[in-house]
Structure of MSHA biogenesis protein MshK:
Amino acid sequence: MLPTKISALLIAFLCSTLGFSVNAAALRDPTLPGNASGQADVVISSTNNNLVLNSVVKNNTSAYAVINNQIFTLGERVKGVKIVGIGKDSVSLADGRKLTMFQAITDFKGQ
C-alpha cells in the first residue's frame, strides 16, 4: 500500500512539474525587445544609403576621403558607387552625387 501511495505521489509531482514547465514555455521572455523593434530595423536600413563625407586629406600626390568613417581613395567604391573625384572639401561619385563637408568645418572665420 505504501509503495503505491509513493508512486501515486511521485506521478502527481512529475505531472505538476511538467505542467509548470509547459506553462513557463508559453510565457514571453521579458528581456527580448518589444514588437516595435522591427520598425527600427526599417529605419536603419533606409538610412544606410546615406553617405556622409567626414573629412578629406589631399596633397600634391595623393588624396583620401573619409566617408561614413571609412577611408577611400580615388577609384574605390563606396556602397557600390565609384569615387571619380576628390576635392579639398568634396567628393564626386560616378552616379552624379557630390558629397560635401559641413560648411562650418571648411569655412574660416574672418575670411
About this structure: Residues 2-26 form the longest helix (25 residues). The first strand starts at residue 53 and ends at 58.
